[in-house]
Write a structure and sequence with these properties.
Elements lengths: L15 E8 L7 H15 L6 H4 L1 E8 L10 E9 L17 H21 L8 E6 L7 H16 L4 E7 L5 H8 L4 E4 L6 H20 L20 E3 L2 H4 L2
Parallel strand pairs: 1-2, 1-4, 4-5, 5-6
Antiparallel strand pairs: 2-3, 6-7
């Protein structure tokens, strides 16, 4: 896929890069994909055009799902890296086919490497990039390829080159595989995806977390996931442990 130029604003401030990997495989069909699409629009609207803190949050959105026959992976960059308050995507995701999770992770890491190079070329300071993956299934790729990508991601994480968050939705998600990808303290289960408000809660939580990071402007190195509670104080992200992932 062709590379699009990256636009950077406020280059004298610390930037917050984030790649979001969104599952649009066939199992997301119906209410879940509709809720995800609605939450994405609300997420985009959270960021204010004239807010300088929002202008240093750089977001890339990658959708992944098969083309219907399960044999041809479909990785689509629906939002090239851009300041959060200048996101321009309008396309609705359509659920179809298999789950090329490993290829999505690999593509996300390539996009992170690209924006880090852009930062360095422009002498821009930045926080450790976020890689946030939301999926309801398991990889439909070859085990050898999946294992290689897992190992690559592990090296990037242990080398402190990226902060990862794997978020599973529904009971059909392979939480053991998700845990193998993203590890202890970075693997979560979203409350019932059929409760459509939970996607909205999740994206509001992510926008608030990124904004808080941008406001610190270099003063905070914390990479842990903040408490995720909805407006009623109910937790909607449950941390996946080794025990849960093996059940």
């Amino acid at each position: 896929m062709p590379e699009m130029p990256i636009k950077l604003e406020n280059t004298t401030r610390y930037h917050v890069p984030c790649v979001m990997l969104l599952d649009k495989s066939g199992s997301m069909g119906g209410e879940p994909i509709d809720a995800l699409n609605d939450a994405l629009i609300e997420f985009k609207d959270k960021f204010e055009p004239d807010n300088e803190d929002h202008s240093v949050i750089d977001i890339c959105i990658i959708a992944f799902g098969g083309k219907g026959n399960g044999s041809v992976p479909d990785i689509e960059i629906v939002q090239n890296f851009a300041p959060a308050n200048e996101m321009f995507y309008t396309k609705k995701l359509i659920a179809d086919g298999g789950t090329p999770l490993a290829q999505a992770v690999e593509t996300g890491l390539k996009e992170i490497a690209r924006i880090k190079n852009e930062y360095k070329e422009n002498a821009v300071d930045y926080y450790r990039p976020w890689l946030v993956c939301i999926t309801d299934g398991e990889s439909t790729e070859s085990r050898g390829y999946v294992d290689r990508v897992k190992e690559t991601l592990k090296k990037e994480t242990e080398g402190k080159h990226v902060v990862t968050y794997g978020i599973g939705v529904g009971n059909g998600c392979n939480y053991k595989e998700l845990y193998d990808f993203f590890g202890e303290g970075h693997t979560f289960k979203l409350a019932d995806v059929r409760n459509v408000g939970k996607f909205a809660d999740l994206f509001e939580f992510l926008s608030n977390s990124m904004t808080a990071k941008s406001e610190s402007n270099g003063d905070s190195a914390n990479t842990s996931m903040p408490d995720a509670v909805d407006k009623n104080g109910v937790r909607f992200l449950t941390q996946v442990t080794t025990k849960l992932s093996s059940e």
